[in-house]
């Protein structure tokens, strides 16, 4: 029986992009369904009644929610191709730790950068750069966080890179100036078809954020 | 080579106790190191420089931080009494509910107990939504993990024990049998398990700790 895979998503979501990337890495065919988050579909509300959020992966009718949980699920089911988590338990723990770190920090700080002003924005920018520098340190001299190939932490983090242009523009700062090694890593990732086909155009994302700011009445 | 397992923890922390439950469940021998969180030890700061928090597991000198990450590590390293199910879909569900407990429930329950009186009604409603969601997930299972305790049950230790202790101290009863009969039944089964019972702080000591907190909060007003 062929696998039926549906992804409920919202095009600018860096969380949704993680799932797209994992599916691409595994070479999986799936049906992409765009959600209008101001008018959530009955399918989304049925498949994620707890959080009512995207992304949701529906595999043979059964839903999985929360992007990193979905990525781990994909990795476990389709374990023969392009493994994302290492096989060593300690390295797996380190990968989970850093992916969790990205989740805990970057979204909130990024949101503050584009939606606040003055001191609140400055604090957010400073903390954001500190987080990226810490991640740079974790990357070290490796080509990817996963070592020679992209892994779980790469998938968790690289999808934020298409939001960097928006953060830089609305925050009036340069991420590359502060974290050149990390930007070099994002460029290296983008050379892979799975990454470039899963991430959105930074200018499109910028336009989306501009639209959000107007809607929320933020100058 | 003999295995060296150390746990840096704090007696009253539900996160720290989660790790102890898992280690005991698997029959792993370990050295427990109590950390004074008001004066964090050099070992803690070196082992968890990113968050500077307990618990931290040190396995043959290598540190692992974040309780849910530690639980998965323990499950993958010591195979007796598995905490996570075998099937990828069931594993995803277990991770989902453990995350829900960590990110939504614990915060909502904590807020409901400690918020200002004017915000209490709303906070209690939000906490009850979380409890109802868990009640619905439990359905007719003995434990979240099925017949035996699993990842979600271990993650729910705060709900099983701390909520009741704090509730008594601040006068907010959240887990009531009329609204949450299934969850209350789970709590009784849960607290009856020896591996849980033996890895909880003393009710008296925890109650006294939170009473001190209430007193110092009212004195600083």
UniProtKB/TrEMBL annotation, chain A:
Recorded GO MF terms: glutathione transferase activity
InterPro entries attached to this UniProt entry: Glutathione-S-Trfase_C-like (IPR010987), Glutathione-S-Trfase_C_sf (IPR036282), Glutathione_S-Trfase (IPR040079), Glutathione_S-Trfase_N (IPR004045), GST_C (IPR004046), GST_C_Tau (IPR045074), Omega/Tau-like (IPR045073), Thioredoxin-like_sf (IPR036249)
Pfam families xref list: GST_C, GST_N
GST C-terminal domain location: 88-216
CDD domains reported for this sequence: GST_C_Tau, GST_N_Tau
Calcium found in the keyword field: no
Keyword line: Transferase
A cellular component term, taken from the record's GO annotations: cytoplasm
Reactions performed catalytically: RX + glutathione = an S-substituted glutathione + a halide anion + H(+)
Superkingdom, taxonomy of origin: Eukaryota
Any one GO BP annotation for this protein: glutathione metabolic process
EC numbers, comma separated: 2.5.1.18
Domain GST N-terminal: 3-82
Family assignment from sequence similarity: Belongs to the GST superfamily.
Record-given protein name: glutathione transferase
Organism of origin: Vitis rotundifolia (Muscadine grape)
UniProtKB/TrEMBL annotation, chain B:
Entry annotated with the keyword Transferase: yes
Domain annotation GST C-terminal: ranges: 87-210
Pfam family for this entry, one: GST_N
GO cellular component: cytoplasm
SUPFAM superfamilies: GST C-terminal domain-like, Thioredoxin-like
UniProt xrefs under InterPro entries: Glutathione-S-Trfase_C-like, Glutathione-S-Trfase_C_sf, Glutathione_S-Trfase, Glutathione_S-Trfase_N, GST_C, GST_C_Tau, Omega/Tau-like, Thioredoxin-like_sf
Any single biological process term in GO: glutathione metabolic process
Family matches, as Gene3D superfamilies: 1.20.1050.10, Glutaredoxin
GO molecular function: glutathione transferase activity
Catalytic activity entry: RX + glutathione = an S-substituted glutathione + a halide anion + H(+)
EC number: 2.5.1.18
Keywords in alphabetical order: Transferase
CDD domains reported for this sequence: GST_C_Tau, GST_N_Tau
Domain GST N-terminal: 3-82
Similarity comment: family membership: Belongs to the GST superfamily.
PANTHER family in alphabetical order: GLUTATHIONE S-TRANSFERASE U8, GLUTATHIONE S-TRANSFERASE, GST, SUPERFAMILY, GST DOMAIN CONTAINING
Protein's name in the database: glutathione transferase
Organism: Vitis rotundifolia
